Amino acid sequence: MTQVQFIQVSPQELASLIQESVKQSLPDFPIQKDSDQKEILTRSETAQLFSISLVCLHDWMKKQIIKPYKVGNKTYFKRSEVLEVLSSSNRN
Length: 92
Fold this sequence. Notes:
Elements: H1 11-25, E1 40-42, H2 43-50, H3 54-62, E2 69-71, E3 74-78, H4 79-91
Antiparallel strand pairs: 1-3, 2-3
């Protein structure tokens, strides 16, 4: 491992150098939207993610392609399971 020594650099100068480097690197990282961070999706959000109709989504639920979670009369899906269905369909 290479050693780096900072000679005649004040803590404020070092902090400034680090901050500038981080600012330059940030645009390279993808930024997730708030909607991407939701763990639970509604029927509409799930259909939109797959680019399918709600009728097709209902058919997939009946065929057990995707697992629904019911709360009262509302239907939800887990994002992780939805993404798994997407990735497994690409393997076939």
